[in-house]
Amino acid sequence: MIELQQFLLFLLLPVAAASGWWFARRDPRAQSRTVPGNGPAFFRGLNYLLDEQPDKAIDVFLELAEVDGETAEIHLALGSLFRRRGEADRAIRIHQNLIARKTLSAEQRGFALFELGQDYMRAGLLDRAELLFRELAELGLQAERALRGLLDIYQQERDWEQCLEIAERLRPFCERSPDAEIAHYHCELAEDARRRADPDAARRALERAQAVDPLCVRASIIAGQMALADGELAAALELFLRVAEQGVRYVPEVLPGLMQALDELGRTDLIQVLEALAARHPSGPVVLALSEALRRARGPAAALQTLTQYLARNVDLAALERLLDLEQPAAAGDPACRAAVVHEVVRHLLTRQPAYQCDHCGFSARALHWQCPSCKRWGSVQPVQPERIPGDEVLHERRLA
Question: Of 10, 108, 320, 352, whose Cβ has the fewest other Cβ atoms within 10 Å?
């Protein structure tokens, strides 16, 4: 870690030298004075940093800042470096000193204010960071970055109304539409309303979510769960089936509710519904539910055939475990049996397998997060899909035959 820090600090040396040379070329008067970043004080400050004496180094750099305004960029870089090292207090000291200087240009002041706001966030002083970012946004200095900083703060504080306001203000800066994220904020408000036992407010929030993003699968899931809880079985079933149209990978999330609605409605087409879902997008939970329905209706042989066909094309430990259950029911009573050993290995591997993964950063989890805890993207965490086994479909059919 120390070697990396020293490497980063040494990277500042050519930057300082180059900036000094450029200013000297641009301003003949600079020939007669010490060029920023080339004087002995600057190198004394770097030596303090390399000797792990950051407070002495800061004192030297702040003295330089008071003498020459052209060192602002160097101080901003140093402040950022301190923050990345986790030394937010030292970064705050540097940036506060810069902001107090009257020689800064508007652009430099805006950048220093934004960096100070980042320091406050790193230190957990969200209220101070919020005030700075609000000021920057109003002044039009670092406006986009300031608004994104505010959005980050309000998401941490779960202030979804403020998130909606900032998201709309960010819309002109967005390359892609923020409607999907805005729909999630409405869904968060709906969840809050459900916790307060205010179903009317929850429904209004869900309606706004679907109005903003008609493909918002989360809104359909929440609405279906509410309808099922209220005994509105037909509406719940329609909403759960809509999930297959909006985001088929999320069908496992509504599968228990869908099956409950079919059962309580007295429907006898459970197998047909599950077969249609499996044909559209085969996934472990759907195939497992289908195999269980087939086992009850037609016996173990039908369930085994479905699982075997699925596993011939997909690497799925849960389906394999179920197949072993059906093929070797007696093995469970004999731990020494080879089939039982294989079964135990599969079960162990299954416990270590993540159920969800972020499509953007690769974060994995056992539970669904609508906002990725790692990269903070909305809707990027999805159920893990089984790995497809490459090969000719005709060859697969021959193997099964």
Answer: 352
